Model the fold of this input.
Amino acid sequence: MGIEKNNVNNYNDNYLADAERMARHFIDAAGKLEEKGEAALIFPHRSVDGDCVGSACGLALVLRALGAAAYVAMPEKLPEDMSFLGIDDLLFFPWDIPSFENEPVVDGKPYGAAYAVDCSEGSRMGDCGKYFDMFEDHLIVDHHQSVDTRNDHIWVMPEASSASELCFYIAQVIEEITGIDVIDQRAAECFMAGIVTDTGRFTYTNTKPETLVAAGILMARGASINDVSYNLFDRVKVGNYKISAAARLTTKFFADGKIAVTFVPRELFDEYGADAQGVDDVVAAMRDIDGVELAMMLRTLENGSIRGNLRSKSYFDCSQLAAQFGGGGHAKASGFTVTGIGLTELADEVLEAALKMI
Ligand SMILES: [Mn+2]
Done:
């Protein structure tokens, strides 16, 4: 099954047993859904990413291969960069159906079960949370710390790279038990999307030997690291390409080059036809500049508020600076949102506060 236990095993001794426990739950659940003519909803977290969508859609395909009706309850529309996965037929938007609350029907079938991936609580699911909470029993597969790990229906493994990696192990065991090929090319690509996303293309420290073995098996099943990587990391709209360059070109340096500052007014987004994704990578890139300890980017949001993003390289505590402007976060990555002040005016204030701390 999957990976033999050996001296490069970084996971706890029981993870394949956990995968088998969950596989049996899902096989059992799929049988009941089919028997009753009901449909299951699988819930990703809000602000969807490659892992929650990948694990949810991969799992939906696995359940469908077992004969059950399964859909992914999306908290928002699918981001354009994930359309390459070809998963529209798997997605369901309960908040878009006024009658759903009183008469929960999914594609003609009564809504009969709720599962969560990459999260474990309704509060993380945005507008979909209340539909998850309609049931008391949930099957949950997650790699975030959670309070309720002793529940037999829950598998939380924080040392795993991604929820997609865990769902892949479950799917593998389902194949062994049932003899049905449940991981088709599309499911393989979905799981790959999740693993590639959460490991930063296999560069973060959560990338384990097991992760690479899992990715290798998925590749052999037809998943393309190249497609996933291009679509989720490299692909860019013209306007976003340009605004990223503009934000970098106008970066100013203070405190002997230790502080890097740039700001992006709303007009610039309009001028280039860019969206917020266009400047996503800028502040981290500023932090990586030789000699820079603190990087800050301020941009005007659509509603006129100003969003500040802070990153530091080693010793500067960004969260303390962010707190002075009503925000927070981690020591090396923080943010804040301020209303009722001009962009340059706020930039001066933040810079002044930063200069006192650096
Ligand atoms: Mn994840």
